[in-house]
Amino acid sequence: MKVLVATEKPFSATAVKGIREIVEAAGYTFVALEKYTSHDQLVEAVADVNALIVRSDIVDKAVIDAASELKIIV
To answer: In this structure, are residues 23 and 16 in contact, taking their beta carbons and an 8 Å threshold?
Structure first.
């Protein structure tokens, strides 16, 4: 399972570290996309992820359509 944390406005370093530890302890792959500057970067990043964690980013139809393996958005 691959978990993507995607934020235009980054989470605190402590929060990202905690999320990474939990994800990796569960045996999953952790990927971060922080401070991205275009919607296209998010669309590209979700292509093969199973879970998406966002802060206040907009997850629209284009993002969901591009994420064929996506099971959950938090």
So the answer is: no
Structure tokens that stand for 60 in this block = 């629209």
pLDDT of residue 22: 98
Do strands 2-7 and 72-73 pair parallel, antiparallel, or not at all (unpaired)? unpaired
φ, ψ of residue 46 in degrees (nearest 5) = -85, 0
Is the alpha carbon torsion for 48, 72, 18, 32 positive or negative?
positive
pTM over 0.85: yes
Which residue type sits at 31? V
Contact status, residue 64 vs residue 70, Cβ threshold 8 Å: yes
